[in-house]
TrEMBL record:
Keywords: Isomerase, Rotamase. InterPro entries: PPIase_dom_sf, Trigger_fac_C, Trigger_fac_C_sf, Trigger_fact/SurA_dom_sf. This is Trigger factor C-terminal domain-containing protein. It comes from marine sediment metagenome. SUPFAM superfamilies: FKBP-like (SSF54534), Triger factor/SurA peptide-binding domain-like (SSF109998). The lineage of its organism: unclassified sequences, metagenomes, ecological metagenomes.
Length: 142
């Protein structure tokens, strides 16, 4: 299914479909933009063989009390209030997460943890052993 005016194809593709009737075929020549993410296709012209199987008209429902009732709300005002409340909750949750992240980053950046020298020495020794082992493996492979 393709929606005329969608951004998945260049505008020239949509324009080429205008006026087609169900069952009609058409060859559409379309030049992809030079900014196309797939470098092999960027700036090149392609011919699309199109068969229009079915034509549908998008119907946008009226924004009224019946629409609200279809969404399990008492009326349009109640639906608007519910949506507004959900957006507010979402905003508050996002802000809370952002603040927690900021606090953690500040705590990490401001902390001054002293690592015991014995721990550093132990890690250095482990790393030296790992490197020696890798060198020996490389010699054995040669």
């Amino acid at each position: 299914m393709f929606k005329i005016g969608s951004s998945t194809f260049p505008a020239s593709f949509s324009q080429g479909l205008v006026g087609l009737k169900a069952g009609e075929e058409k060859d559409l020549k379309v030049r992809l933009p030079s900014s196309h993410p797939q470098k092999d296709f960027a700036g090149k012209e392609f011919t699309f063989k199109v068969l229009l199987k079915e034509l549908r008209k998008e119907e946008v429902p009226l924004l009224d009390n019946q629409f609200a009732k279809n969404l399990k709300s008492d009326d349009l005002e109640a639906l608007k209030k519910h949506i507004q409340d959900e957006l507010q909750k979402s905003k508050e949750n996002w802000e809370e997460k952002r603040l927690k992240k900021e606090i953690i980053e500040k705590a990490v950046n401001d902390s001054k943890v002293k690592v015991p020298p014995s721990l550093i020495e132990k890690r250095v020794e482990e790393r030296i052993k790992e490197l020696k082992s890798k060198i020996e493996e490389q010699r054995a492979d040669s």
